[in-house]
């Protein structure tokens, strides 16, 4: 009873503290955020009070410990649902701003719906909400299976999940209200950054603690990739977001860096957020789920280790290629270019390792659309990790920089690599997490695959054409030495490409909606009369290799 009172009192205290901060806030956005925090604390207080077993407490019966013979998959289930929810929100926002570029009237003359506020909402929703929840959920799933151990700190794992959702809500509402630190991919203000730091340290503690208590002597390579992603993102986040608040009760802050130092720090963060959040973390997913779905071992474990250490060493130096032809010292630009070009080799080593894992199971590409998604993800990973180093070369960058070619490059990687591998992993996880023999419909997965693939092609190809067209129009001089095309003419020339881009995005989103329906039906226990995805149906016993701990 004392523990219940302590927890309830703690949540009540935090609620009152948040309401006081809202009342004393020096600006409206900070007040709104403190009200959101207070409501979150009230929700936790309600959950603490209503879920308590008062009868057992009155009889002095201690809470039964969790079954140590099964994995702790509750945070994984929640993470899968959150991944799908935030994915729909982020991609819908992306489609809307794509339409805004084609039809500016869709800005609606409202400050909350302008492109400038919705664009960071879109990028953060798909990277940190969709991608971040996928990484947290899959890492909790993978580390338990590969270590044959339950999550080290169950309560802390739940705090990580719910704390991360609070971070997403605070960041998203902040963007709509115009609260931003003006750093790409790092827009949340100082107090939201502090909260994410607390959540991330808890995440690291859960992950490392589970590895420490493992029953397997070997640490599987996927866990090395997950660990590098968690540790490096913490370092990048802390350094890039160093700032001084203008007031402890306001949203405004001043960055610790300025000028070219700020630009270099920002793209040291920005490029390595791609490198470790969107690459290393998702490679961890690839190294676990591709062999599991293919029912084949990793093609070369030695190559996976070489891939890991090469990627870790090289990626961290490549950020300056975002600042070619700027005030950044030329040696730093060249350093970023050289390391970017070298980075092509380990990246393709990982792609080849993933594809060759299917050696002896190539027929599954024809029969299993989940495998097909994984192969397509690896293909886009290979394409993006070739295109990126190519675009870092100075003479190529002189044409591509500031154009829509960069947008096409980013989205071929994000939609093709990150999106496809996430979809495949969710399709793998849902039947296992909810104890279903298989997915509701294989045909719906196939429809999803083709809609997503064709949508990516429409999107990326239109942006490649638009980017090259922009680069050529901007540098076209007449015989008199004047520019041939005005900037307005180059914008007008982009309109057909923007329409094709929006069509591709709509197709990709339509495929995602089919996935939502398929997953919803699977969780509901429905099974469509179709040929099973694999010859051997899912067995719950095979997914629970933990040895039950005898009661004392």
Can you walk through the features of this model?
With 552 residues, the protein is mainly alpha-helical. 71% of the residues lie in helices and 1% in strands. The protein contains 18 helices and 2 strands. The chain has a two-stranded antiparallel sheet. A hairpin with a 7-residue loop joins β1 (243-245) and β2 (253-255). The longest helix has 36 residues, at 259-294. It is globular.
| CATH A-level architecture of the domain at 75-256 | Up-down Bundle
Largest sheet: 2 strands, antiparallel
Q: Which runs of at least 5 residues are low in confidence (pLDDT < 50)?
A: none
List SSEs in N-to-C order: HHHHHHHHEEHHHHHHHHHH
Helix content: over 70%
Gyration radius over CA: 24 Å
Beta-strand portion reads under 5%
Quaternary structure classification: single chain
Number of strands: 2
SSE class: mainly alpha
Shape: globular
| Number of helical segments with 4 or more residues | 18
Mean pLDDT: 91
Key phrases:
1% strand, 18 helices, Cytochrome C Oxidase, Chain A, single chain, 2 strands, mainly alpha, two-stranded antiparallel sheet, 552 residues
Write the layout of secondary structure elements.
Elements: H1 2-24, H2 28-50, H3 54-58, H4 74-102, H5 115-147, H6 154-176, H7 190-212, H8 221-240, E1 243-245, E2 253-255, H9 259-294, H10 301-315, H11 330-356, H12 364-367, H13 369-392, H14 394-400, H15 404-433, H16 442-474, H17 487-493, H18 495-523
């Amino acid at each position: 009873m004392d523990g219940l009172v302590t927890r309830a009192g703690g949540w009540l205290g935090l609620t009152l503290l948040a309401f006081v901060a809202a009342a004393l806030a020096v600006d409206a956005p900070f007040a709104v955020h403190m009200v959101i925090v207070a409501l979150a604390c009230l929700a936790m207080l309600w959950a603490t009070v209503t879920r308590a077993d008062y009868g057992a407490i009155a009889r002095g019966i201690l809470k039964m410990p969790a079954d140590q013979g099964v994995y702790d998959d509750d945070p994984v289930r929640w993470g899968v649902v959150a991944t799908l929810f935030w994915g729909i929100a982020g991609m819908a926002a992306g489609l809307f701003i794509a339409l805004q570029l084609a039809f500016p009237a869709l800005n609606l003359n409202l400050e909350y719906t302008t492109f400038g506020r919705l664009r960071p909402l879109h990028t953060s929703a798909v990277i940190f909400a969709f991608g971040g929840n996928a990484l947290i959920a899959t890492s909790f799933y993978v580390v338990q299976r590969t270590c044959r151990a339950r999550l080290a700190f169950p309560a802390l794992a739940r705090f990580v999940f719910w704390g991360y959702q609070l971070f997403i809500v605070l960041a998203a509402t902040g963007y709509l209200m115009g609260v931003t630190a003006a750093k790409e991919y790092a827009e949340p203000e100082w107090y939201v950054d502090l909260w994410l730091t607390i959540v991330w340290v808890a995440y690291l503690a859960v992950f490392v603690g589970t590895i420490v208590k493992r029953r397997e002597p070997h640490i599987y390579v996927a866990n090395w990739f997950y660990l590098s992603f968690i540790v490096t993102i913490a370092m990048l986040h802390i350094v890039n977001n160093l700032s001084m608040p203008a007031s402890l009760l306001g949203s405004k802050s001043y960055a610790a860096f300025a000028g070219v130092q700020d630009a270099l720090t920002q793209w040291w963060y920005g490029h390595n957020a791609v490198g470790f959040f969107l690459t290393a973390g998702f490679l961890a997913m690839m190294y676990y789920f591709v062999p599991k779905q293919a029912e084949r071992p990793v093609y070369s474990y030695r190559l996976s280790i070489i891939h890991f250490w090469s990627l870790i060493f090289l990626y961290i130096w490549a950020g300056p290629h975002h600042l070619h032809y700027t005030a950044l010292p030329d040696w730093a630009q060249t350093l970023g270019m050289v390391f970017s070009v070298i980075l092509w080799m380990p990246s393709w080593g990982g792609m080849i390792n993933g594809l060759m894992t299917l050696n002896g199971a190539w027929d599954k590409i024809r029969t299993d659309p989940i495998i097909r998604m994984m192969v397509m993800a690896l293909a886009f990973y290979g394409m993006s990790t070739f295109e990126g180093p190519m675009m870092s070369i100075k003479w190529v960058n002189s044409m591509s920089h500031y154009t829509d070619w960069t947008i096409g490059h980013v989205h071929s990687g994000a939609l093709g690599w990150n999106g496809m591998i996430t979809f495949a992993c969710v399709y793998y996880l849902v039947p296992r997490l909810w104890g279903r023999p298989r997915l509701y419909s294989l045909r719906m997965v196939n429809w999803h695959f083709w809609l997503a693939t064709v949508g990516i092609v429409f999107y990326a190809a239109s942006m490649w054409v638009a980017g090259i067209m922009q680069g050529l129009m901007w540098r076209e001089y007449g015989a008199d030495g004047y520019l041939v095309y005005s900037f307005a003419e180059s914008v007008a020339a982009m309109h057909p490409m923007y329409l094709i881009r929006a069509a591709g995005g709509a197709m990709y989103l339509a495929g995602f909606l089919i996935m939502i329906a398929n997953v919803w039906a699977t969780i509901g226990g429905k099974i469509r009369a179709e040929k099973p995805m694999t010859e051997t149906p899912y067995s719950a016993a095979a997914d629970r290799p933990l040895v039950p701990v005898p009661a004392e």
